[in-house]
Amino acid sequence: MKTLPLLALLLLATAGTAHAADAAAPVLKGLDGLYPELDSLYRDLHQNPELSLQEEKTAAKLAERLRKVGFEVTQKVGGTGVVAVLRNGKGPTVMLRTDLDALPVEEKTGLPYASQVTAKDDSGQSVSVMHACGHDVHMTSWLGAATLLARAKDRWRGTLVMVGQPAEEKGGGARLMLKDGLYSRFPKPDFAVAIHNSATAVAGSVEYVSGYALAHVDSIDISLFGKGGHGAYPHTTVDPIVLAARTILSLQTIVSREKSPLEPAVLTVGSIHGGTKHNIIPDEVKLQLTLRSYKPEVRKQILAAIERIVNAEAAAAGAPRKPVISLTEGTPATYNDPAVTKRLVEAVSRTLGKDNLRETQPVMGGEDFSEYGLAGVPAVMLWVGTVEPKRHAEAKAAGETLPSLHSALFAPDRERTLRTGVTTLTASALELLGKP
Ligand code: ZN
Ligand code: ZN
What is the whole-number distance in angstroms between the Cα of residue 386 and the centre of ligand 2? Predict the structure, then answer.
């Protein structure tokens, strides 16, 4: 009689440990049954992509499904944004974010479910549209996690806030949603989590960065002014083409000579426009620059150096007018809260296995998920691999570069990627939400 309760106690203790070791496992049991539905949603989203701030049908599809599983859904937040709330007793509020928009890219994957959609962009031009950044992977994974969590309300406590954000590709969607009261009209999250698919990581794996993970992105427009005239009489002109050439070369010294070599940043002149004909010296040349940096002080230093050099080169050339330098609103650097990153990495690796979690380098791409963190919420974005394992190994062996995000050839290994996306978001949410 004495041994029996002890045995029972031992068994209970073991079961208890198993539960604590992987709280997500019982919830994720539902994924097999749910997968066919997610797969068809993914194909539908992939075949019907919508450009930034035009994501109306996309938003409606997600809103309808979230309502069905019990969320209180609000649409048209910050344009086409969706906010879905599920209250489940006392506990932390956890926000899971997906982006909704696609890109003006003509799909060339040859997949049976490739997009053939065209739409009008902001300038009224007809363009092909494709989910070339994989936001359809994010949406499907996000909906999968929301569905599994809603079906397993006995496994967690707190409030789940699902955010479907428009216009990530334009860098303005997060700001629009925050301005429209995301943190005041709805429960303000204690944590914010998102995934982004990775075009380099193997499908089934997750990669993470603690601290700065994506760059601050600035777009800079510069007009340089000269005095136009005949190409055969340069002495009667101030040639803005030569001024632009000198300015571009001088700008190269900011990153290489002025900034600390230990602080990452990149400055690229991506566009130069001036002149109409061989023998005419124009009045004006326009430059477009992209600046990528992490730390605010580095960004400030480089912006000041750009202004100084552009003005000084114009003065040296004897330009009749000071250049016009304008900074269009950029995307701030994405900072992954180190303490939360650690918790999520441990939680996700319990589910996916330690071998499938890898620390990786920050990138110079930008993401406006950063805005949610800057608005006062510890936030983490994790990378979810998309490359079919065999293809990954072959490319690695051959030193081949795989199609990047935004490529017309970008095609995630669908099922592995989606299952990993759902698993990552579900395990992350359960780690941060309260226990029953
Ligand atoms: Zn993108
Ligand atoms: Zn993206």
Answer: 13
H helices present in 254-352, as ranges: 296-317, 338-352
Residues with beta carbon < 5 A to ion ligand 1? 133
Do 226 and 200 fall into the same domain?
no
Q: Compute, in angstroms, the gap from residue 181 CA to the centroid of ligand 2.
A: 23
Are residues 68 and 181 both part of a single domain? yes
Rounded Cα–Cα distance for residues 89 and 397 (Å): 52
210 and 228 fall within a common domain? no
Report the separation in Å between the CA atom of 224 and the middle of ligand 1, taken as the mean of its atom positions: 31
Q: Among 290, 313, 329, identify where a domain stops.
A: 329
Q: Are 226 and 103 members of one domain?
A: no
The CATH number of whichever domain residue 250 belongs to comes to 3.30.70.360
Residues taking part in catalysis: 101, 168
Q: 418: which residues sit within 8 A by CB, 6+ positions away?
A: 35, 38, 39, 42, 137, 140, 141, 144
Q: Do 46 and 186 share a domain, yes or no?
A: yes
**CA–CA dist 169, 196 (Å, integer):** 13
Please check whether residues 321 and 343 belong to one and the same domain. Answer: no
Tens-digit pLDDT profile for residues 342-399: 999 999 999 999 999 999 999 999 999 999 999 999 999 999 999 999 999 999 999 9
Q: Is residue 1 part of a domain?
A: no
Q: How many domains does the chain have?
A: 2
Give distance in angstroms: CA of 172 to centre of ligand 1: 13
Assigned domain for 187 exists: yes
**What gap in Å lies between CA 170 and CA 168, rounded to an integer?**
5
**Angle at 175 (CA atoms; ends 169, 178), nearest 5 degrees:** 135
pLDDT tens digits, 237-282? 999 999 999 999 999 999 999 999 999 999 999 999 999 999 999 9
Domain boundary at 298, 329, 360, which? 329
The C-alpha atoms of residue 25 and residue 30 are separated, in whole angstroms, by 9
How many angstroms is it from 275 CA to the middle of ligand 2? 36
Which of the ligands is closest to the CA of residue 98? Answer: 2
Q: Which ligand is nearest to the CA of 136?
A: 2
| Domain around 25 | 6-214+333-432
Tell me the pTM: 0.88
